[in-house]
């Protein structure tokens, strides 16, 4: 559900987040003390935050995983959402207490803005204080003896916004670790394309605008678009062949709202 195309390397920035989080898991797993570690992944919409969290869930060898997204509680009352959040943490605590000393539990709070009913109109920001208080309490309360839990939250904000900005809702103060998950630049896009097994682009060197910024979602859509023009499979894990001009046209069509102009030069 969260990795419909599998996980593909998106360049050094994304790989660094994975590497640092795996180091955090190693430390947590071998710590003599009970711990709850918290990680906030933030960045622009579509930059791959949810995919990163899902990838960590798959490779982290957790004994318990609970992925709580806003879409899973859409249309429910604030009380129901508070109960769902509390149940996610209770499940992690129960699983850890009945597992071996090296087992870890994972709770993912995906799209925190929507979970706490965040709205911004002009400079006015409103949230459900009950939901925000529930998350704050669960993240800051002492945990039972013998537990090791990792909590990952994802938050959509534009690049360049300071952690102190009101739209962060003070969440960086609740999470011990925070990592920016950026949009893909030119080098990261080429890394993604190489990992996708779309390895033949026709004649010539494949070129992209030097100031390209594209989301993971847009790139998946561009690959699928290019495959419509060719004979390749839309399953990015299978080796495929597309024409360079088709793929480049689809990528550029996907990012026309990202500020690229006719004067941008490929490299």
From TrEMBL:
Its EC number is 3.6.4.6. Keywords: ATP-binding, Cytoplasm, ER-Golgi transport, Hydrolase, Magnesium, Metal-binding, Nucleotide-binding, Protein transport, Transport. Residues 35-156 form the AAA+ ATPase domain. It comes from Geodia barretti (Barrett's horny sponge). Pfam families: AAA. Its cofactor is Mg(2+). This is Vesicle-fusing ATPase. Binds 1 Mg(2+) ion per subunit. GO terms for cellular component: Golgi stack. Belongs to the AAA ATPase family. The keyword Metal-binding applies. GO terms for molecular function: ATP binding; ATP hydrolysis activity; metal ion binding. SUPFAM superfamilies: P-loop containing nucleoside triphosphate hydrolases. It is found in: Cytoplasm. Its main location: cytoplasm. It catalyses: ATP + H2O = ADP + phosphate + H(+). It comes from the Eukaryota. The keyword Nucleotide-binding applies. GO terms for biological process: Golgi to plasma membrane protein transport; intra-Golgi vesicle-mediated transport; SNARE complex disassembly. PANTHER family: VESICLE-FUSING ATPASE (PTHR23078:SF3), VESICULAR-FUSION PROTEIN NSF (PTHR23078).
């Amino acid at each position: 559900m969260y990795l419909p195309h599998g996980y593909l390397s998106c360049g050094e920035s994304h790989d660094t987040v994975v590497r640092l989080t795996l180091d955090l898991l190693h430390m947590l797993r071998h710590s003599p003390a009970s711990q709850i570690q918290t990680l906030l992944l933030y960045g622009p919409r579509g930059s791959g935050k949810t995919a990163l969290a899902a990838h960590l869930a798959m490779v982290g060898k957790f004994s318990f995983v609970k992925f709580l997204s806003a879409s899973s509680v859409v249309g429910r009352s604030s009380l129901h959402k508070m109960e769902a959040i509390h149940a996610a943490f209770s499940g992690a605590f129960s699983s850890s207490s009945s597992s071996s000393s090296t087992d870890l539990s994972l709770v993912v709070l995906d799209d925190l803005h929507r979970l706490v009913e965040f709205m911004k109109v002009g400079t006015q920001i409103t949230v459900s204080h009950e939901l925000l208080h529930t998350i704050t309490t669960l993240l800051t309360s002492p945990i039972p003896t013998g537990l090791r839990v990792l909590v990952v939250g994802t938050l959509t904000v534009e690049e360049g916004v300071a952690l102190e900005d009101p739209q962060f809702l003070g969440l960086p103060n609740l999470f011990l670790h925070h990592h920016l998950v950026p949009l893909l630049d030119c080098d990261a896009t080429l890394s993604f394309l190489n990992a996708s097994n779309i390895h033949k682009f026709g004649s010539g060197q494949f070129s992209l605008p030097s100031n390209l910024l594209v989301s993971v979602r847009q790139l998946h859509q561009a690959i699928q678009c290019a495959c419509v023009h060719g004979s390749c499979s839309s399953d990015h894990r299978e080796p495929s062949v597309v024409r360079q001009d088709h793929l480049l046209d689809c990528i550029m069509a996907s990012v026309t709202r990202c500020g690229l102009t006719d004067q941008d030069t490929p490299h």
